[in-house]
């Protein structure tokens, strides 16, 4: 069993770096203030459910059926109501989600519940956090969520695994969930109907996948700026296209920001004087393209930050000393006591499980990914073309015909770009009514997020492909970089990637270059 590598507070700052770390075992802590807040919300739930004087309140999922069947009574026994919540959602299909997404989603679920608006027991929060010190990961099928009413089906599989039902992974081995819990030293979780509904009625899978995809695209965006600088230096291009006054006149903050970063990397560069007056757009317009991507990514930054810190659940329970409005609430709220009394708080039924912000953000992320992928592929195409690469051999081959250089890699990049383009169709606009029109509009945020996660991985491979090409270009005759920043980037690539002398498979080289660029923060 792996040991905990780090510690994260459930109520501390949460960002994509934390979500990446939770893929491996770490310690997640719950402080006394969080326990008190969750317990306060739990007592409010019971007070509202079994209120004095005014009789019992109707609370969705606790006293009722689910979704379109809300007009019918639920099961009276709390254990039966838990089963009622989860069993009917066991309808997912397809391959299992990546463990990194599942564990990140569970951390987000724990974070949402720990804010004390969901009426769950403190044991649920504490037992959720305990699993992160192990490699236990529920097996969750990819298909089934529409990103409305939360990620119901995938989170139901995760919750069932925590109860010892279904399947899970321990140390990357898939097995029955009860065996996995035992192997990880965990006990099956016991839930009532409120606990079960709160665990599934949020967009945690959507948020996790969006945040991780965004993190990957951000890393690729940074890498492409550096690779563009290296390409500029190796070919001897004039860096005038990065002129500060030029980019300020353009009027877009992202272009100004990216241009400044690229000028820093190219500081000290010496143009060859042999290039055309104006470079192809894949070089000359790179700061405008990368700058527009920066502006779009800043929007996604805000959506991800809001989703990581927000509460995704329904209904929500507002103790009187924590609500933002009057204790009486509105037409969707139910007081525990009459309005003239102090009252412990209210329950509010609404739609905070609706994943539209993440759907829009993930769709925008897909568009950014597609254009960044286009840039990387076009730059590699330029680099292997003797008509445009300053006289380097075709395909950067040492002996063209006897050796094929980057020909296979260049062909594969065309395939990767085609796959990215095919996947870039927006999901968030393709609403379909479901659940007897209870869910008559849905955001399809889960589809958008998981698609963007896959695309981010392909974009990383495109960056790795371009990096292998730049490394090979120097080997077959391109000049050494004249800018120290570009020289450091090339040296890192040379150390990690052998030159291509005789033809050999380059798939592992591309992956190695991608890992170097995306995890080491180069340049």
From TrEMBL:
GO terms for molecular function: ammonia-lyase activity. InterPro entries: Aromatic_Lyase, Fumarase/histidase_N, L-Aspartase-like, Phe/His_NH3-lyase_AS. Pfam families: Lyase_aromatic. Keywords: Lyase. SUPFAM superfamilies: L-aspartase-like (SSF48557). PROSITE patterns: PAL_HISTIDASE (PS00488). Residues 319-343 are annotated as: Disordered. The keyword Lyase applies. The keyword S-adenosyl-L-methionine does not apply. Signal peptide: none annotated. It comes from the Bacteria. This is Histidine ammonia-lyase.
């Amino acid at each position: 069993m792996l040991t905990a590598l780090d510690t994260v507070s459930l109520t501390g700052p949460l960002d994509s770096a934390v979500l990446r770390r939770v893929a491996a075992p770490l310690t997640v802590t719950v402080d006394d203030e969080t326990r008190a807040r969750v317990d306060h919300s739990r007592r409010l739930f019971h007070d509202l459910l079994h209120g004095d004087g005014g009789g019992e309140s109707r609370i969705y999922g606790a006293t009722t059926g689910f979704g379109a069947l809300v007009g019918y009574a639920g099961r009276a026994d709390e254990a039966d109501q838990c089963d009622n919540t989860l069993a009917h959602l066991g309808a997912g299909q397809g391959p299992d989600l990546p463990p990194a997404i599942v564990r990140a989603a569970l951390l987000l679920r724990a974070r949402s519940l720990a804010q004390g608006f969901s009426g769950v027991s403190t044991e649920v929060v504490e037992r959720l956090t305990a699993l992160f010190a192990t490699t236990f990961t529920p097996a969750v099928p990819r298909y089934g969520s529409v990103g409305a009413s939360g990620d119901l089906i995938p989170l139901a599989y995760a919750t069932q695994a925590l109860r010892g039902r279904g399947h899970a992974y321990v140390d990357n081995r898939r097995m029955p969930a009860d065996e996995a819990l035992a192997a990880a030293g965990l006990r099956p979780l016991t839930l009532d109907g409120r606990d079960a509904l709160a665990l599934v009625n949020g967009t945690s899978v959507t948020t996790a996948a969006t945040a991780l995809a965004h993190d990957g695209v951000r890393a690729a965006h940074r890498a492409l700026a550096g690779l563009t600088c290296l390409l500029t230096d190796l070919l001897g291009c004039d860096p005038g296209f990065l002129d500060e006054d030029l980019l300020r006149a353009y009027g877009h903050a992202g272009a100004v920001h990216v241009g400044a970063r690229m000028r820093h990397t190219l500081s000290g560069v010496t143009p060859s004087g042999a290039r055309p007056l104006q470079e192809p757009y894949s070089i000359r317009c790179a700061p405008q393209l990368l700058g527009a991507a920066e502006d779009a990514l800043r929007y996604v930054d805000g959506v991800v930050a809001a989703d990581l810190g927000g509460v995704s659940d329904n209904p929500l329970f507002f103790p009187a000393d924590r609500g933002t409005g009057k204790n009486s609430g509105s037409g969707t709220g139910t007081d525990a006591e009459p309005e003239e009394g102090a009252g412990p708080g209210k329950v509010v039924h609404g739609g905070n499980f609706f994943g539209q912000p993440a759907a829009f953000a993930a769709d925008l992320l897909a568009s950014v990914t597609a254009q960044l992928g286009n840039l990387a592929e076009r730059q590699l195409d330029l680099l292997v073309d003797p008509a445009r690469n300053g006289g380097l051999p075709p395909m950067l081959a040492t002996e063209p015909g006897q050796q094929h250089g980057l020909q296979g890699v260049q062909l594969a990049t065309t395939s990767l770009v085609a796959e990215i383009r095919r996947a870039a169709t927006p999901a968030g606009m393709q609403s379909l009514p479901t659940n007897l029109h209870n869910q008559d509009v849905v955001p399809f945020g889960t589809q958008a997020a998981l698609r963007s996660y896959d695309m981010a991985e392909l974009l990383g491979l495109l960056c790795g492909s371009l990096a292998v090409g730049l490394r090979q270009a120097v080997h077959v005759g391109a000049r050494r970089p004249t800018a120290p920043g570009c020289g450091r980037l090339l040296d890192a690539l040379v150390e990690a990637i052998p030159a291509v002398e005789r033809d050999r498979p380059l798939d592992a080289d591309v992956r190695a270059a991608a890992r170097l660029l995306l995890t080491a923060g180069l340049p």
